[in-house]
Design brief:
Layout: H1 2-20, E1 38-42, E2 47-51, E3 57-61, E4 78-82, E5 85-90, E6 113-117, E7 123-127, E8 143-148, E9 154-158, E10 163-167, E11 173-177, E12 193-198, E13 204-208, E14 213-217, E15 223-227, E16 241-246, E17 252-256, E18 261-265, E19 271-276, E20 295-298, E21 304-308, E22 313-317, E23 323-328, E24 348-353
Antiparallel strand pairs: 1-2, 1-24, 2-3, 4-5, 5-6, 6-7, 8-9, 9-10, 10-11, 12-13, 13-14, 14-15, 16-17, 17-18, 18-19, 20-21, 21-22, 22-23
Length: 375
């Protein structure tokens, strides 16, 4: 009864958010949850930070790169703001990761949680058990992304379990795509999935990373749209699809990670815009693989916010492909508890503008578009 009561309380609190706790114009720059701020999953610093547009840290969760306790979020890949709460995925750190020398276990430092925290850093909901790897009830294996749904369920990309699962607040799996533990490109199969978003039509847009494709699936598992062949042995137009989002005009924005680019395709799959994350001097080319951007989101102002992971920076690019804002410093790994204006990030995997759900699933069923463009 205590668990049920706490869940009902959480649901009631979240319901109130729809009416009164969304980001508003009254919130000024530099305040927690301001519409100008950016939420960053600072992966191997084991933290999620919120920064103002000058890079000053106004909120954080996690104790830094040397902490591998439940008080941090280990190897965090994804974070999103849900009203004043923050949802984040503790992916864990692989063993031997050059950017995470404090993880001394050759087998890696797991986390395997999706958590929802309040502004004070208290965990109010959790799926998965810290440090436990599995596929049973309340277990995850390398969760890389999480999406809060308008019905209060959570869509989790459970990468090493080769599945997308929808979990309710009672921690029941109510929907799944992908066969647990089976990597493949056949019916109901995925190969290292990296993201999932609920579309307005009720379908799920999935990044099937190692199958080099983005797919749109119906609730019955039918694939109704696909970009990329799904055959990892074919030279596809995209390679290592790290993220995908469906824009209002029907275009799809894809993070084509292994090609070091962001690509926008129209409904007929024609390329209408692309951006290569780093082509000049100073680009970090780890292990000969390239910069490997991990996340790109189109903002309401028309710019594109890009997590340029191994270049240790987050950049905002306008339509003319000019960088108009940077957090972190090109190719410079660091840790700073005050500001990331000129460095201080370590492999940032994800960044989102507070209150801007352009192309991704709004947590309350609608995108709060009451603001003017963020500049």
């Amino acid at each position: 009864m205590r668990v049920k009561s706490s869940l009902l309380k959480l649901a009631c609190v979240l319901s109130l958010l729809v009416a009164g706790c969304l980001v508003t114009k009254a919130q000024e720059e530099g305040e927690f949850n301001s519409r100008h701020n950016t939420l960053i999953a600072d992966q191997f610093n084991n933290r999620v930070i919120e920064v103002d547009r000058h890079g000053n840290i106004v909120w954080h969760y996690g104790l830094g790169p040397a902490d591998f306790s439940p008080s941090s979020i280990i190897g965090v890949n994804d974070a999103q703001r849900v009203g004043p709460f923050t949802l984040m995925a503790g992916t864990g750190t692989p063993g031997g990761q050059p950017e995470a020398p404090n993880c001394t276990n050759p087998a890696g430092c797991p986390d395997n949680r999706v958590i929802l925290v309040d502004p004070d850093g208290n965990i109010v909901w959790q799926y998965g058990q810290f440090g436990v790897t599995g596929s049973g009830p309340n277990q995850l294996n390398v969760p890389v992304q999480n999406t809060w749904l308008p019905n209060f369920d959570v869509l989790i990309t459970d990468q090493a379990n080769e599945r997308i699962i929808e979990v309710d607040l009672g921690k029941n799996i109510v929907w799944q795509y992908g066969t647990t533990g089976v990597a493949g490109n056949g019916p109901n199969q995925l190969n290292n999935p990296n993201c999932a978003e609920l579309l307005e039509n009720g379908h799920i847009l999935i990044c099937d990373e190692n199958n080099n494709r983005a797919i749109e699936v119906k609730r019955d598992g039918t694939i109704v749209w696909q970009y990329g062949s799904g055959d990892p042995n074919i030279n596809d137009p995209v390679s290592g699809v790290a993220f995908a989002s469906r824009l209002k005009n029907g275009h799809t924005l894809i993070t084509d990670s292994n090609h070091n680019r962001i690509v926008e395709i129209d409904k007929d799959k024609n390329v209408v815009w692309e951006y290569f994350t780093c082509t000049g001097n100073g680009c970090n080319l780890p292990r000969g693989t390239g910069p490997l951007p991990t996340r790109a989101l189109r903002l309401r102002n028309g710019h594109t916010l890009i997590s340029d992971q191994y270049n240790h920076r987050v950049i905002e690019v306008n339509h003319d492909k000019k960088i108009v804002r940077t957090f972190g410093e090109l190719g410079q790994l660091g840790y700073n508890t005050v500001s990331v204006a000129d460095g201080g990030l370590n492999s940032p995997y994800d960044a989102k503008r507070i209150g801007d759900y352009t192309g991704i699933t709004p947590p309350f069923g609608f995108d709060d578009d009451r603001h003017d463009d963020d500049r």
